[in-house]
Amino acid sequence: MTETTTVAAIPRQTRLRMYRDIVRVRRFEERAYKLFMDGLVKGTSHLSIGMEAIAAGFGAAMRDDDLTFCTYRGHAHTLVRGTPMPRVMGELLGRSTGVCGGKGGSMHLTSVEHGVMGSYAIIGAHLPIAAGAAWSAQLRGSDQVTVCFFGDGTTNIGAFHEALNLAAVWELPVVFVCENNLYMEYTAIADVTAVERPAADRASAYGLAPIVVDGNDPEAVHEQAARVIQRARDGGGPSLVEALTYRHGGHSRADPGTYRPQEEIDAWLARDPVPSYRRRLLGDGVAEDELAAIEMEADADVDAATEAARQAPFPAPEEAFTDVWADGGSSWRN
Amino acid sequence: MAELITYRQAVSRAIAQEMRHDESVVFLGEDVAAAGGVFKTTKGLLDEFGDQRVRDTPISEEAILGAAMGAAMTGMRPIAEIMFSDFLATCWDLVAVEIAKMRYMTAGQVRVPLVVRTANGGGLRFGAQHSQSVENWAMMIPGLKVVAPSTPHDLIGLFAAAVRSDDPVMFFEQKSLYPVKGEVPDGEIVDQLGTARTVRAGTDVTVVALAAMVPRAVAAASVLHDEHGISAEVIDLRSLVPLDTATLLQSVARTGRIVTVEENPRLCGWGAEIVSIVGEECFDALRGPMVRVTTPHIPLPSADALEDATLPSVDRIVEAVVKLCR
């Protein structure tokens, strides 16, 4: 049997779902930025503006019981799995209605009931943890696939290697997705990496195929996502996908991103997934009204989530002393 | 019925007991399956439970603990071996920043019921990188339970309690104790975390010890009784978190004196926490200064003569107690 290269057309419903997710994440991230500037969101936040197509493409390819592990840049991955926006916004604003009751914040969004198994803020840490969740699925015969998202900088830390090797030798149902936005924090990944493609050029070290996908094209992402997720579900083991993309802003709230050449920024802004996917859908005959309705709904959702979060109570101070232990408390002595 | 077994044999009996008890218990680590462990603590487990539940891993401590954590978060109860406790430093992010904090950060959405077992402590002439006593590292991280048994019987019961706990437990096996024998009753043994044991009753001074320091404290108590007429009460803490302060404070309230015997190096050793609790809550009962006997604040040397000069010895414990009670 030869491997087919023709891919079944992505159903209209899936395409609209991806556009909806891209727009919702964009609008959410823009609002999160504004709320930061207004002083309502504290600490730090890492936005996915410009990178939404990766979350949307994978999200639409995952089964409801599949598991997501992501990083501190995890608003997008949390939302596309269906986590209610008011609960995500509530967490950013430190309210009791937040997904983590205000204990996690922007960098630790988690919603187990939606398969979002955590947002991890130490580079590389969650790759072996995702491998462990995949091992568990393999042991339990649950047929679940774990998808683990991380940035390009992660490919140079030891946990990346340990996790990839273990996943390969144990043939674990896990997909590792490198969101390569060309910059770690302030430093270009190319300046500090021995190979040109930080993830794909390492794949052969684990017996895996090198996979590079245009991370600004939701359909290209979705096609790869569907393929590697199915492969994992069928017992074919892990995959490592490098999705090329760009963050429109800096690394975090504190970073204006001035270290990047203007021509590079312009080139990537021209490939912004929101207008480019919109154009593509229009060109394929989707009605303007239908897209406008999706956009209006996203705006309304963000407004409602913001209002709900602003109205929500702050957690009671005593909540700081709950959830350390399984008994619900924090006592370490009798 | 009871049998006399070594602390080493107690490890495999404890793991086997829990793997028989609960299908979701799995075990992974370096050289633990086919080789039966570098300390031969896990012999026979692969044969009984098969290679799905008993797994050899690459030398990848972050992958070992990550795999255990991810599995624990999704319905399993993993036991992970870190061969020497010194190697915890290579995967401390997983221990201290991931495993310990996950339940809290997610407001209880995630539970992490796993046990990290590791060979801890000195006395085997392994030198500075394979002899550290690091139970105090774990004690200072909120979200970890910390256990260190001193006998084969305690090892089995506390291990079972650790595996059955829904919280992550750091389980320190003191490797100098592996050949030590003790009586263990037949049948399933399940103990309780956070319970200290008064090993020897006394009236003049409370000597608090853990793991390999317990038999030394007991030997010192005999010398103190026979040669100095001092009645020492010896308490085996058994777990640092949860900490059985009630047993401790009740004892010091009676004796008026406390000496801790710690294998960890001096600064920020667990005894410092113990004496601070006693100082705050039992000050009026004290008849003298609170004294700590510890390994000095140095890396551990290898040669017999040098290592023996550093770990707390029976003589040093006796000397400290006699000076305090004089």
TrEMBL record, chain A:
<dbReference type="InterPro" id="IPR029061">
    <property type="entry name" value="THDP-binding"/>
</dbReference>
<dbReference type="GO" id="GO:0004739">
    <property type="term" value="F:pyruvate dehydrogenase (acetyl-transferring) activity"/>
</dbReference>
<dbReference type="InterPro" id="IPR001017">
    <property type="entry name" value="DH_E1"/>
</dbReference>
<keyword id="KW-0786">Thiamine pyrophosphate</keyword>
<dbReference type="Pfam" id="PF00676">
    <property type="entry name" value="E1_dh"/>
</dbReference>
<keyword id="KW-0560">Oxidoreductase</keyword>
<dbReference type="InterPro" id="IPR050642">
    <property type="entry name" value="PDH_E1_Alpha_Subunit"/>
</dbReference>
<protein>
    <submittedName>
        <fullName>Thiamine pyrophosphate-dependent dehydrogenase E1 component subunit alpha</fullName>
    </submittedName>
</protein>
<feature type="domain" description="Dehydrogenase E1 component">
    <location>
        <begin position="21"/>
        <end position="318"/>
    </location>
</feature>
<dbReference type="GO" id="GO:0000287">
    <property type="term" value="F:magnesium ion binding"/>
</dbReference>
<dbReference type="GO" id="GO:0006086">
    <property type="term" value="P:pyruvate decarboxylation to acetyl-CoA"/>
</dbReference>
UniProtKB/TrEMBL annotation, chain B:
<keyword id="KW-0560">Oxidoreductase</keyword>
<keyword id="KW-0786">Thiamine pyrophosphate</keyword>
<dbReference type="Pfam" id="PF02779">
    <property type="entry name" value="Transket_pyr"/>
</dbReference>
<dbReference type="InterPro" id="IPR005475">
    <property type="entry name" value="Transketolase-like_Pyr-bd"/>
</dbReference>
<dbReference type="GO" id="GO:0000287">
    <property type="term" value="F:magnesium ion binding"/>
</dbReference>
<protein>
    <submittedName>
        <fullName>Alpha-ketoacid dehydrogenase subunit beta</fullName>
    </submittedName>
</protein>
<dbReference type="InterPro" id="IPR029061">
    <property type="entry name" value="THDP-binding"/>
</dbReference>
<dbReference type="InterPro" id="IPR009014">
    <property type="entry name" value="Transketo_C/PFOR_II"/>
</dbReference>
<dbReference type="Pfam" id="PF02780">
    <property type="entry name" value="Transketolase_C"/>
</dbReference>
<feature type="domain" description="Transketolase-like pyrimidine-binding">
    <location>
        <begin position="5"/>
        <end position="180"/>
    </location>
</feature>
<dbReference type="InterPro" id="IPR033248">
    <property type="entry name" value="Transketolase_C"/>
</dbReference>
<dbReference type="GO" id="GO:0016491">
    <property type="term" value="F:oxidoreductase activity"/>
</dbReference>
